[in-house]
Every structure is written in structure tokens, then in C-alpha cells.
Amino acid sequence: MPNKVEEFNAYRVKMNDKLLSENNKVIKRIFNLDTNAFMPGALDVKTKELLGLVASAVLRCDDCVKYHLESSQKTGATKEEVMETLSIATLIGGTIVIPHLRKAYEYWEELEETNA
Predict the structure, then answer these.
(1) What span, in angstroms and rounded, lies between the C-alpha atoms of 43 and 14?
(2) Has residue 103 got a pLDDT over 60?
(3) Which residues contact 21 (CB under 8 A, 6 or more apart)?
(4) Which of 21, 87, 99, 101 stands 20 to 30 A from 61 (CA)?
């Protein structure tokens, strides 16, 4: 069975490389802004990743949710912190977020298995 985490990351890297090779100044600046926004500042990186997770879930961007789940895990976020974060996202976003909550939970389990 293919590893969903590896598949997602391979696709993301491949397509980001293609997009950035187009030498489009706006796209490059957006990517750079995203990178800089999640650097340590007044808020620590883990908090910023969890905020990104809430926004991504509320906006119903499954790829974004996956990215922020993985980034949150890398910063040391626990399952309990992630679930609390996702509960806030579901509260704010409403029941339409529930399908994305399911996918997020499933992807978190994949991350736990991959990084065990």
C-alpha cells in the first residue's frame, strides 16, 4: 500500500519545483511570504502552524491541512493539541468542516505511523 505522506510530499515538491522554475515574480514572492510568515516571531512556530491548521480547515483546503498537520507534528505538537485545534476549526467553520476533519484525522494517523 502506498504511503500517503510520502506521496503527498513527493507531489508537493515536484509541483513546487515546476511552479518556481517558471520564474514568475509574484508566485515566488507569495512562496517567500509564506515561508517568512511561519518563522519564529512574537508567536512560536508551533502556534503559527496550529493557526495555519485552523485557517486551512475552515477554508476547507485538504492539501493545506495536510501540510500544517505535518508541520505541526515536526514542531512537537501532540495529538491532543492537534485535536483541540481541529475542534476549534470545526466550531468556527461549522458542520461543513466535518468531512475535512475526518480527512485530517486520517492523515494524522498516517503521520504517526510514518514517524513511529
Answers:
(1) 30
(2) yes
(3) none
(4) 21
Tens digit of each residue's pLDDT (9 = 90 or more) over 26-71: 999 999 999 999 999 999 999 999 999 999 999 999 999 999 999 9
Calculate the alpha carbon distances from 51 to 12, 23, 61, 102, 113 in Å: 21, 30, 14, 18, 24
Whole-model pTM over 0.85: yes
In whole angstroms, what is the distance from residue 56 CA to residue 62 CA?
A: 7
Question: Integer distance in angstroms from the first to the last C-alpha of the chain?
Answer: 17
Contact 70, 111 (CB under 8 A): yes
**Non-local CB neighbours of 19 within 8 Å, separated by 6+ positions:** 27, 31
d(CA 92, CA 38): 22
∠ CA 105-12-29, rounded to 5°: 115
C-alpha–C-alpha distance, residues 48 and 43, integer Å = 7
Rounded to the nearest integer, the mean pLDDT of the chain is 96
